[in-house]
Amino acid sequence: MKKKLLFLLVFILLLIPINSLALSKNYTDKVSKYTNSKVESDKVNLYLFRGEGCPHCKEEEEWLNDIKDDYKGKLNIYDYEVWYNKDNAEIMTKVSKEFNTNVEGVPFTVIGNKYYIGFSDTQKSNIQDKIDEYLEINPNSRKVNLPILGKVDKKDVSLPVVAVVLGLIDGFNPCAMWILLFLISMLFGMKNRKRSIILGIVFLSVSGLVYFLSMLGINMVLQIATISILKILIGLFILGAGIYNFRKYLRIKDEEAGCEVVDDKKRKKLITKINKITHNKSFVLALLGISVLAISVNLIELACSLGFPVIFTELLAVNKVTGIVRIIYLLIYIFCYMLDDMVIFIVSMATLELTGITNKYTKIVTLVSAIIMIIMGLLMLFKPSWLMFNF
Amino acid sequence: MKKLVVISAVWCPSCLVMSKYLKKIKENFNIEIEKLDYDFDEEEVKKYNVDKKLPALILLEDEKEIKRITGEKDYNEIEEFIKED
Q1: What is the CATH number of the domain that holds B8?
Q2: How many domains are there within chain B?
Q3: Closest approach of chain B CAs to the CA of A141, in angstroms?
Q4: What is the mean pLDDT of residues A230-246?
Q5: Which residues of chain A neighbour B55 with C-beta distances below 8 Å?
Q6: Distance CA A120, CA A332 (A)
Q7: DSSP assignment of A157-210, as one string?
Q8: Are A290 and A333 in the same domain?
Q9: What is the pLDDT of residue A298?
């Protein structure tokens, strides 16, 4: 066993120098003759022509700075401002002629014998794939295969994991669980089983949809809110929610687990409401009623556990996740958030016996939530760059 | 004659989790169990002066309360509760 380990170790050590010296034979620097930049035998030079004040250029610049560290000194980045600097503009014209084109737009990126105009997510992976190719790095080593999302950069893995973890913890928040249990028990009383199952599914779907739309809305606000004062307010809000939860934990820590009887009046009102809905002769009216119930209940619940949705949508915002990917991340979060509700509904309907989930972990969930919120709040206030998962 | 009064609610997950333990208790011990619902048997529940924690297990002997426990308990805890005197 020891011998095998030793052999493996020697083998790996042998690989390292070979790996680090590797540079593809296809690599030629076509720009250095115009810029007089150094061409080193084991490094790749990347040339970025940009305009001062051009938003995409700034984005690419920041992104290049992020990925530079990943290549451990094997990637040199040279950048030239061409809107205000005439010499640089001239270099850019010469370089574009070298490639037999006439490039005028920025950002204009050149690596080896390839050039890229503009900057987008596709361009990102094109550029990175090219660097990998020249440095003879297997591009797949950067990526992992995930269900639903497909191939994802290792750097971006943190977000789906965070979505699952935060969603699950948020789901354990017992704010509106009792309404679902109540609804199920009322559904048992209905003679028509098909109807009762449809009503339950509609309740759960509308609940998920409301939560999803609310989070999307919060995210859109956070996405455009670059004003630092708002960021500080969000950080303070999360920190406050964390402290609130920690105090709640201190209060319940020595109590026995169980169910707290609260809001007698509110509950009585809801009981009559649900009763009316499930006994409504018109199925359409019942569906309508259950949807309205789901909407109102979930808006209340959102207020009850606003901390986690805000944390997650803020994470999406600072990591500049937009478009379809943002929708997928939110759906992952919502799925995990609804998981306990779905399990209870399915098991109850299948066994015709109302099932609950133990409350014994409520204390731990409260403590964990408090700790996560406090850490996230502090990071948002003092180290927002750590939330960008650029480790 | 001993009797166990269980006050629970349909909306209370802890009560639901415990219902299977109580079924087992009924099988294993010869004890009468009376189930009351916090919302639907209001009048009955009032008699027992339940405070804010559910479920509440109240042990009676000849219709007189001997002791009670509240909150989520597992099978062993319920067993201990009805056995020890």
Answers
A1: 3.40.30.10
A2: 1
A3: 46
A4: 90
A5: 258-259
A6: 24
A7: HHHHHHHHHHHHHHHT-TTTHHHHHHHHHHHHT-S-HHHHHHHHHHHHHHHHHH
A8: yes
A9: 83
Considering the domain architecture, whether residues A131 and A168 belong to the same structural domain is answered as no
CA-CA distance, A157 to A160, in Å (whole number)?
6
List phi, psi (to 5°) of A282. Answer: -80, 120
Residue A275 located in a structural domain: yes
Asked if residue A7 is part of any domain, the answer here is no
- Which of A177, A182, A188, A261 would best serve as a mutation to test chain B binding (most B beta carbons within 10 A)? A261
With 70 as the cut, is the pLDDT of residue A2 above it? no
Q: Are residues A219 and A368 in the same domain?
A: yes
pLDDT at res. A159: 83
What is the tens place of the pLDDT at every residue in A136-172? 877 666 666 666 666 666 656 678 888 998 898 888 7
Final residue before a domain boundary, out of A110, A137, A164:
A137
Spell out which residues of chain B touch residue A256, defining contact as CB-CB under 8 Å.
Answer: 53, 70-72
The distance of A179 to chain B (nearest Cα, Å) reads 7
Q: Which chain B residues are closer than 8 Å to A257 by Cβ?
A: 14, 71-72
What's the half-sphere exposure (Cβ side, CA atoms, 13 Å) at A330? 26
Residues A171 and A69 in one domain: no
Out of A260, A354, A358, closest to residue B10 by CB = A354
Alpha carbons B16 and B35: distance in angstroms, whole number: 12
Query: Which of B6, B10, B81 should one mutate to test binding to chain A, selecting the residue with the greatest count of A CBs within 10 A?
Result: B10
Domain count, chain A: 2
When CB atoms are compared, the residue of A177, A256, A268 closest to B13 is A177
User: What's the distance, Cα to Cα, between the start and end of chain A in Å?
Assistant: 34
Same domain membership, residue A252 and residue A181: yes
Give residue B31's domain range. Answer: 2-83
pLDDT at A111 over 70: yes
A1 part of a folded domain: no
> Does a cis peptide bond (omega within 30 degrees of 0) precede residue A139?
no
pLDDT of residue B39: 86
Residues A82 and A199 in one domain: no
Judged by a CB distance cut-off of 8 A, whether residue A347 touches chain B is no
Q: Residue A40: which of A54, A23, A61, A18 has the closest Cα?
A: A23
Domain extent at residue A28: 12-137
